[in-house]
Amino acid sequence: MDYSILYDSPLFKGMTPADIEEILSLVPYRVRKFQIGCMISQSGEIVESLIIVMSGIVKGEMVDYAGRVIKIEDIPAPGALASAFIFGNRNMFPVNVIAITEGELLMIAKSDFLRLLMKYDKLLVNFLDMISSRSQFLSEKIKFLNFKTIKGKLAFYILQKSGINSVLITLGMTQSALADFFGVARPSIARALGELEDEGYIEAKGKSIKINDKEGLAELTID
Questions:
Q1: Beta-strand pair 202-205/69-76
Q2: Residue 204 burial (CB < 10 Å; 0-12/13-18/19+)?
Q3: What is the pLDDT averaged over residues 30-59?
Q4: 24/18 Cα distance (integer angstroms)
Q5: DSSP, residue by residue, the chain
Q6: For residue 39, what pLDDT is reported?
Q7: CATH number of 3-139
């Protein structure tokens, strides 16, 4: 295995490829190949292993009660799958995980991964940081899903990107990616952006946005 692939993984932050090789030499692991479009895991399936994307890209998506598919995120290598759900009483995959490209997964059984966490303090700290970041991401995602209007979702996203003082931002996503992130159709994103601009809240040019009325945007986030 090329251990340098894992060098950029948050789990192995601050470690060298030699450190990673030493750690993984202590436990059995397996590498699973996947093909484009295959279902890697289903929502509700028990998380029995630490799973890291070694190559390729997968995505997490969920289906709501209306049957709409909501894309949660893309997970490229060397991202981990359901890291915040390995332990706990409800350690199940929260979403479906589907392959966007072909690639490989590194899999370490939960019991073996626990032994590594107990042996290496740095690994434990990195894991705690990683799952905390995942929890924060999911918390923000829930906020987006709770907004009833697309303009409310966009207003919250723009304000979140701008912070306290800035009025100039770059969206960081295409309209198609934003549509997937919000769980809506792409034309709805374009229409909502146009309405925000027509109503004087923002000025948009491509992915660049100038905020003209922060207080007005904030009001749109209140249901």
A1: unpaired
A2: middle
A3: 95
A4: 10
A5: --GGGGGG-GGGTT--HHHHHHHHTTS--EEEEE-TT-EEE-TT-B--EEEEEEESEEEEEEE-TTS-EEEEEEEETT-EESGGGSSSTT-B-SSEEEESS-EEEEEEEHHHHHHHHHH-HHHHHHHHHHHHHHHHHHHHHHHHHH-SSHHHHHHHHHHHHHTTT--EEE--S-HHHHHHHHTS-HHHHHHHHHHHHHTTSEEEETTEEEES-HHHHHHHT--
A6: 96
A7: 2.60.120.10
Residue extent(s) of CATH 1.10.10.10 domains in the chain: 150-220
Q: What's the confidence (pLDDT) of residue 66? A: 67
pTM of the predicted model as reported, rounded to 2 decimal places = 0.69
Pairing label, strands 39-41, 96-99: antiparallel
Distance CA 55, CA 35 (A): 11
CATH of domain 150-220: 1.10.10.10
Q: Rounded CA gap, 86 and 212, in Å?
A: 44
**Rounded to an integer, what distance in angstroms lies between the CA atom of residue 61 and that of residue 98?**
8
**Which residue is listed with tokens 């890697």?**
40
Query: Exposed, middle or buried by CB within 10 Å (0-12, 13-18, 19+), for 31?
Result: exposed
Strand partners, 99: 58
> What distances in angstroms separate CA 4 from CA 7, 9, 13, one per listed residue?
5, 10, 12
